[in-house]
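quick one before i forget lol
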Amino acid sequence: MNNTLSGNGNGSATVLVAEDDPEIRKALERILGYEKYNPVAVNDGAAALEAVVEHDPDAIILDVMMPFVDGLSVCRKLRADGNKVPILMLTARHETSDKVAGLDAGADDYLAKPFEMEELLARLRALIRRSSDTAQAEVYEAGGLKLDVPKRLVTVDDKPVDVTRTEFSILELLMSNTDIVLERAVIYDRIWGYDFDGDSRSLDVHVGYLRRKLEAAGLPRLIETVRGVGFVLRPGDGLEVTT
């Protein structure tokens, strides 16, 4: 990735736009250029995969329904190859199952059409900011769970656990606030850079995936849901978080 960003979070950040609707694609290309990004636009999934190799983008705006290779397949391919580039998925569908499918494929965020350009730009800024932030020299440990911030590594009993960028950020936030109940709005603001609508399920989906991965690695349930409030990481008896 380029990661040569200016103070406003844009600078020369390269954003790949993969969208088969010509009007939407041209509009995104125009507004991204106006906002001082370096846009690269393609009209299908196969071209998107080629553009990732050629341009090494800092973020991808990826439409779900595209010819040749659909957006979900593009996302799965990139993640399977170990590419962690932030992905904002665009979908014309509003069903929760379609949004979950995008997150399950490895997308960091999703936005349903029609959308406001200001909202898309806000989500894009949040994704790039999280990706380009300099990691703090901190290591959090809770029993056999270890989160190494500089190395962006999660391990359980010294065995690596494969987590997405968003899952890592959520776990880091929870481990740095052990036994403190974090409200949903606070988590959304800290992780995504803005608050979601009250009916959004993004956070729940990501937390669910994170729990399953940690528990599959042999840990007890550390992340608890506080109904009507948010989430908390409780190490439990005999476990302490150290930094």
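fyi The radius of gyration is 18 Å.
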